[in-house]
Amino acid sequence: MPSPAAPPGRRRLPNATTGARCPPPARGEGRGGRVDLRTVAEGVREAVQARGAWGPAAERPHAATASEVVRALDTSPHGLTEHDAHARRRRCGPNQLHEQRARSALAILVDQFRSLLVALLVVAAALSLAFARGPEALAIGVVLILNAAIGFASELRAVRSMEALRRLGQVRTRARREGQVRVLDAVDLVPGDIVVVEGGDVVTADLRLVEASKLQADESTLTGESAPVGKTTAALPADTALAERSNMLFKGTSVTRGAGEGVVVGTGMATELGRITRLVEEAKAEVTPLEKRLDRLGQRLVWLTLIVALAIIASGLARGREWLTVIQTGIALAVATVPEGLPIIATLALARGMHRMARRNALVNRLSAVEALGATGIVFTDKTGTLTENRMTVVDLALSDGALERRALEVAVLCNDAALDGPAGVGDPLEVALLVAGREKGIERRSLLRSAPELREVAFDPAIRMMATVHLQDGAHRVAVKGAPEAVLAASTRIATAAGQRPLDAAERASWSKRNEEMAARGLRVLALADRRVDDAGAEPYQELTWLGLVGLLDPPRADVRDAIGACNRAGIRVVMLTGDQPATARNIARAVGIAEDAIFARISPEQKLALIAAHQQRGHIVAMTGDGVNDAPALKKADVGVAMGLRGTEVARQAADIVLRDDAFSTIVAAIAQGRVIFDNIRTFVVYLLSCNLSEIGIVALASLASAPLPILPLQILFLNLVTDVFPALALGVGEGDPGVMERPPRDPREQVLERRHWSRIAGHGALITLAVLGALALARGGLGASTREAVTISFLTLAFAQLWHVFDMRSPRSHLLHNEITRNRWIWGALLLCTALILAGVFVPPLAALLDVTRPTPKGWLLIAAASLAPLAVGQTLAVLRVRPFGGSDETGPRRQA
Q: Which pTM was predicted?
C-alpha cells in the first residue's frame, strides 16, 4: 500500500481536465499547488516544466519498469485506498474528454430566425410599415415571435431530450481498490489506480501494463494499424514510437483477447486520445438520412411555393387588385404553404420515440438507427442471455469417476475469473454458476487460492476455445483447464479414475463425444474439465491433459421470447439464431422459442457472421444484429442496426452498437423495431397533413384569383392559420403512440421515400376537397345568405380553419377502425383541437384580434354553413376511405413489400 506520508520531491500526476500534472495527496495532506505545462505538439505526452522527482518512470512510463512506474505513482499492486482515490479525483478532475458543448438556448432561439421564409415575413412587415399599415405590420411581428417561440420550445425540448438520453450510457471499468476488484464508473479513475482488463473491454485510461496474459489490443482508432497488437510488460526504449509501445494500453482502444492489469498513468485530456481530441474543435451534429430527405423535400417546396406565389402576385396585379395586398397575399402564401416546422417536428418525433425506447430499456446511440429499425427485415440474434435468461445453474456433472467430484469442481473454481461478491456475483454468469456449484460442496475460491495460489492465467482464446490457470499446489504446478468439450477432449491424452489415470483410448473418446451430444440435446450448455501437473509454470497448458468429465449448465429460455418471435413472424421479420454453442443445444433452445430449424447457425465464427450480414444486405435487406462479445463488434458495425447487450455485453460491443439493451431481452428488440416503424409513420403522417392543408390554401387563393372573386382568405388570416392549424395538430401527430397494428405488416422497403406517389395523390385529394368546400362556402355565403364581402370572407376563413382541424382525423391508417383508431386514441390530438378551437374562436370574439384579422361574427345561419362546409371534406374523405377508393383508402399505408 502507499506510504502514509509523501516522500520528498513528491511525484506529479497528469491532470484529467487541463493536461497539467497534479500532486497526489498523501493521507492527511492538505491542498497542494499545480505545475504549469507546455504542450509539445509532436510529442506523445505532455512534458513537465519542472521535472522534479517525477522523472522518466511516470513521464515516459513505457521506458520504465512496471515496478518503477507503480512506485512513481505512489501506489501498489493492491491499488489505492478509497481515501486516496477521492483526494486524487478532487485534484486531477474526472477521467473524461472535453465534450462537444450542448447547444445553448440562445443558439436554438437564433436558429428560428435563420430561414428564407422568415426573411419573406420581414419584407411583408416592412412593406406594411412603408404604406402606413401599422396593425398589419404588428400582426406579422406577432406571428414571427409566436412562430419562433413554438419552434424554440419544441426544438429545445427535443435537443435536451436527446442529450439526456446520451448521458444515460455510463462506461464502467474494473479497478483494484484496497486489494479488492471493484466495478467503477470510468470517470472516477485516477492516476495510480490498478485497472483489470480482459478481452472485450474498452480501455478507459492510459495504462502501463504490470501483468499480461496473451493480451492483444485493437489500437486502430489511435494508430491506424488494423491488426491487433500483442502486449508485454517489459520496459522499452524511451524513443519507442506510439504504435510500438507494447507495454501500454491507451484510452479509447479495445482489448481483443487475453487478460491483464495496468496502472493508470493518464486520465481525461492527459491521455493520447485527449491529445487528439484537442485537435478536433467541434464535431458536426449527426444528421440522419431521414432528416436529410426531409430537408431536401422542404427546399423543393420552398422554390415550388415561391413560383406559385409569384404567379398569384402577377395574376392579381394583372386584374387590378391593390398591389400591396397582392404582394402580402403572395408572401403569406409562401410562408403558409411551406411546412417550415418539418425539421422541428421531425426532431421532436425522433426524441419522443427515443424516450419511449429508453423506457423499454433500449438506449439509442445513433439517431440513424431509429429510421433503419422501421425497415428491418432480418434479425440475427445471439442465444445466451438474449433468447435465454442468462441465469445459469449447474444441473449435471458427468465424471470419469464419481469419486473425482471434488477434483473436478476444484478445476471449475480455480479456472475462473468470476467472484461471488453481491447477490448475483461478479463476472460471466457461466463462471458464477461454477463458483456456486463449488460453494455448495464446500469449495470456496478464496480459501482454495490460499492453498493453491495462482501463478499464471492463460486467458480464454476463441480460436482454441479453452482457458487455463496455473497454480502452486502441494509443491507442484497444477494446470486447471476448462473449455469446449471437443477442444478439451482433443487435448487430453489420459483419463482420471479413483485408482489413478490411464490412457484415453478411441472408444472412450467416442463415448464422451456421444455423452456431450446427449447433454447438449437437452438444451444444456456443456463444458469440459481437465488438469495436469507440470514442472514449469510457463509450460504449454493445452498438452497431455487428464480428462475429468463434463459439466452441464441450464440456461432456460426467457418466458417472453416465444411471443416476441411470433410478433416478428407476423411482421414479416425473419429471426436467425447465431451462436457459438453446440448445434444440439442451439436446436433445443430454438425449438422452445419458436425459431425454425433452418434459421440456426451454431459454432459460428465472427468471419461467418460478417459474411451472412453482407449477403443479406446485398439482397436489399435491412439487417439488425445482436451481440455481446468483442468478436461481435465487427458484425455490430457492419449491420444496419447493431444491438448490444447492456447487462452482459462487453464495452467494445456496446460502443460499436447503435442500440444498447439494458435488459438484454429479445422482446426489447421487437419493441424497438415497432417504435422505429411508429416514428417513421408519424413523420410521414404529419408531412401528409401539413402539405394537404397547405395545398388547400394555395388552391383557394389561386382559383379565386383566376376567377376574379374576392380573396376567400386574407394575408393575416393565412398567417394566423399557419400558426394555429399547422403547428399544434402536426405536433400531436408527430408524438402519437401509432397504429397498434404496426407489427402486423411487413417491413417497408428501405428505398422508400418519405412521400411516395400514393402519398402525393392523397395530399392532392384531401387538398382538393378542402379547397372546394371553402370556395363553396364563400359562394353560398354571398349568393344564398346574401352576406357582405367581409361576412363571406369570415365564413370562408372559419370554414378553412375548422376543415383543417377536422382533417387530422383523415390521417388514420386505412386499415384502422373509423371511430377507434390511433388518431382518436391520441390525447395530444384532442388537446391540440381544443387549443386551436379556442384560438380560432378568440379570433372572432375578441374585438382587437377580430379587427386585426378583419373578421366579423357570423350569424346563426353563417355558423351552420361553416359547420356543414368544414365537416364536408372529412365526411367525403372518410366515406371514400371506407369504400377503399384511391387515394383516400385504396392503398396500403406502406405500399408494396418485399418478403424478407
A: 0.68
